[in-house]
Specification:
mainly beta; 100 residues; 1 helix; 6-stranded antiparallel β-sheet
């Protein structure tokens, strides 16, 4: 599984590990914290440049509380943890993400 770097030219960024569900531009995905490597599920994402480059970097990690971009961009409300839930990868018989 290769992470998709959504940081554009900022350097370090949030890693979008896997889109687990998508319908048109709406999606649910697993994100990875760049500081503590925590994985968390974000639901109801929207696949466009604004969401990928402004909202995802502003989402707080539910473990360490840090975010890629501490300054909330103008025009969006603070996404905080954006309703994320902690997940881990399970590779037993069927590979899938499970809530902790």
């Amino acid at each position: 599984m290769k992470p998709i770097d959504v940081s554009s030219e900022r350097g370090d960024g949030v890693k979008l590990l896997e889109i687990v569900w998508q319908h048109r531009n709406d999606f649910d995905a697993v994100l990875e914290c760049e500081y503590c490597n925590n994985t968390q599920l974000v639901k109801n994402g929207y696949f466009d440049d604004r969401y990928m480059n402004q909202v995802i970097p502003a989402i707080k990690c539910i473990d360490c509380g840090k975010r890629t971009n501490e300054i909330i961009p103008e025009g969006i409300s603070d996404p905080d943890t954006s309703g994320c839930s902690k997940v881990r990868y399970v590779d037993v018989v069927v590979k899938k993400w499970t809530k902790l």
